[in-house]
Amino acid sequence: MTRPLQIAVVAAIALAAALVVLVNAIGDNDPPATGDPTPTPTVVTDPSATAVDPTSTATPGPTAAPSPTPTPTAPDVSGKAMALLVSGKGISPGELSLVSYEPVDWPSAALGCPEPGVFYDDVIVPGWLVLIGHGDETYEFHADESEETIINCTDRQASMGQTVNAFEEADLDGTTRVDISRRNSTSGEYEPVEVIEDEDEVRRFVEVFDIEIALSEQADCTPVFKLTYRAPGGAAQEFGYICDGNSRLVRGDQDFWEGSDGTAARELGDLVGPYVSNLPMPGFPEAP
Q: How far apart are CA 107 and CA 123, in angstroms?
């Protein structure tokens, strides 16, 4: 090998060695590793979530409708009232309709539909008011709670005719004394039998006239007894009581009688009887 070529080879080898040293030096100057970098958290979005606008106003949902209150079943009395119309008037059941019914507290045993000449105690009686329709007509029925007493009040009132309440018409409420007199069959004059001033007894004599008294044509007779009701500062109110053949007859000279006779309550005989039962014949007639 020639000397120039030898020199070139040596120079190339020296250059290659220098490059290796340089590369190693650069690698030794890299900064030390500090560990794995902190991972960035991943945000997972719920696809079912709905964004809320804080400025929006919530709209309330619909209010649930209340449960309907069941309509009460009609009482048995409505069917019984219809049966009375069917049997009493021959009306076909298919022609009747239930118009209305309601519970009622009646002020007495009369159930709001008193029978003329009957005295009723003032005691509250729970019951029913039922209206039954038949074509253009409406029948009013009154009943007690047990439905043992059912009154066709429409027919009763239609058959009553003319009536009068002597308690109201004669203003007997202020009565403090009741005189009982009996007619002398010889002289025709009324003679005193009893003067009643006991407050409770007077009240009973007064209340027995607080009824509807049915009026009828005046009979040709003279009453056996006379009852005189007296009140302080007021005019005496006189009533003739009992005629031959009519132990419940009552009449008076007051205008409200209109010249008619009335039929007194049986209870009036119970009140008068003890005061006249010891009188000589004819005494006190028996009530029918």
A: 6
**Interatomic CA distance for residues 266 and 249, integer angstroms:** 10
Cα–Cα distance list, 233 to 176, 181, 204, 230, 259 (Å): 11, 22, 21, 9, 27
Six-digit token string for 181: 């007199």
Residue 112 zone, left/alpha/beta (φ > 0; ψ -120 to 50; rest): left
Run means of pLDDT, 10 residues per run, the chain, 288 residues: 50 53 50 50 48 53 56 75 94 94 94 90 93 95 94 90 94 96 94 97 96 94 97 93 94 96 95 87 49
User: Which structure tokens are listed for 268?
Assistant: 């009036």
What is residue 12's predicted lDDT score, i.e. its pLDDT?
54
CA 103 remoteness from chain centre? 5
- What is the per-residue pLDDT for 222? 95
Contact 193, 276 (CB under 8 A): yes
pTM for the predicted model, two decimal places:
0.64
The rounded distance, in Å, linking the Cα atoms of 75 and 62 is: 38
Residue 43 pLDDT: 46
